[in-house]
Every structure is written in structure tokens, then in C-alpha cells.
Amino acid sequence: MIVRIMGEGQVEVAPDDIGVLNSLDSELEAAIEAGDEAVFRVRLHALLDKVRQVGKELPEDSLEPSELILPPSDASMEEVREMLGDEGLIPG
């Protein structure tokens, strides 16, 4: 899966890593639902850090279409709330 972190670039994430990302996504979504800014910030950074850790960075000039777009690390809770789909930020 090709993932774009807004403002950073693209990484390729293996299918085997989607489960752990979904778990982190669920924790982020719960923090948003609770309106807990401090936990939201920690969960957002944990999700993005994990994507960076497990993902293989694509070259800057790569023209691969992104299958998933994630917010930047400085996104507000409201911005992330607007990006959430029925299955969170990461479907599956």
C-alpha cells in the first residue's frame, strides 16, 4: 500500500504491517471521540512514527498514486476528524 504523509512524501507499507497500523488508528480515533487533545497528539505521532518505521520510503520523484493519505504531525484534532472515513484513517 502506498501511503502519503502530508508534507513529507510517500512510503510503501507491506500488507503484514496494516494490522498494527489499524490498531494505532483505532486508538487515535478513540482519542478524537473523547476530545482528549493530549492523548490525540500522542496517538497521532505514534501512528505516523510507525508508518515511517515500517514503510519503505519512495523516491521524491516517484509518481505512484497514494492509496492512503495521512495528516501531517502538526494537524489539529478537527483536521484529522474531517479526514476520518467510516473505518478511520486506515481502512481494513
UniProtKB/TrEMBL annotation:
<dbReference type="Pfam" id="PF22743">
    <property type="entry name" value="PspAA"/>
</dbReference>
<protein>
    <recommendedName>
        <fullName>PspA-associated domain-containing protein</fullName>
    </recommendedName>
</protein>
<feature type="domain" description="PspA-associated">
    <location>
        <begin position="1"/>
        <end position="92"/>
    </location>
</feature>
<dbReference type="InterPro" id="IPR054437">
    <property type="entry name" value="PspA-assoc_dom"/>
</dbReference>
